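Sequence, structure tokens reproduced for reference:
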Amino acid sequence: MKFPVAITARSFDTGGPAFEKLSLHCKILYVNPGRKRLTESELPKALEGAVGAIAGTERFSGPVLESSRDLKVISRIGSGTDNIDGITADRLGIRILNTPEAPVQAVAEHTIALILAIFKNLRIYQAEFSRGVWEPHTGCLLSGKTVGIIGMGRIGKRVATLLQSFGCGILFYDPYLSSSVYPEWKACDSLEDLLRAAEIISLHIPALEGNASLLSDGELRLCRRGSVIINTARGSLIQEGALKRALDEGIIAGAGLDVFPEEPYMGQLLTHQGVVATPHVASNTKETRSQMEIEAVENLIRALEGGEP
């Protein structure tokens, strides 16, 4: 008998190898029909009768999980699982799986792209060209800049490696790592030390408990004047109003944001000249998406069959 499953993630490739493999082992009860993230009110219906789910960034809240009594496994396409109520899932015996390796290169490259877009004034040029304006603006070299990486996990380490090849100096802050783990890079004793020293600050950590902010007014005012912040991690890590004030005052010269406190995001930062924004797509490359889907499907099948993902 095939396992009944639901694909709640948006943009799953129903013509690709992952879907084919899933179809061989499972009975697919539901496929997200569009490119829209399902809401909490839509998820219970989508999960009806399913023992497994291929999930994206949609919110599996406590009430959603409580109403999905058949659900046994949630296999996430991607690394972050903070969109799933882990406490409720654990209580109900629902396993949560992810694909932490596949998105590393794509997110790291996207981080570099956001930095370069700011340093080379790409947003300004695009906006002015669309109005018929031909006006040069002085950019900056990436070479020689001091980069502070917050969170030296898989993605943080890859970003550091790529930026080092540009000639950047690398600082990092990660309270879970010994300062001797990466002797080629300088470990900071505190977040505050990193903020004071870095010209580019890049975030690569999970959401904090309760979606608390890591960087608010106090932290942003420690930054070097004219520094740049990149966030491809979680939108809740930077307090929106504080970042707007820091940009307006010139403390922060530019921000490259792929994630936002509320998504889809329609807030005040989108129209700020100092912000380069993308809609939570850092890992969304053809190659990465295919690999993440395959890994998510394989994880789900192994877990439903009683094996280890």
Observations:
- The mean pLDDT is 96.
- The chain is about 35% helix and 15% strand.
- The chain has two domains: 3-102+285-304, 104-277.
- The domain at 3-102+285-304 is CATH 3.40.50.720 (Rossmann fold).
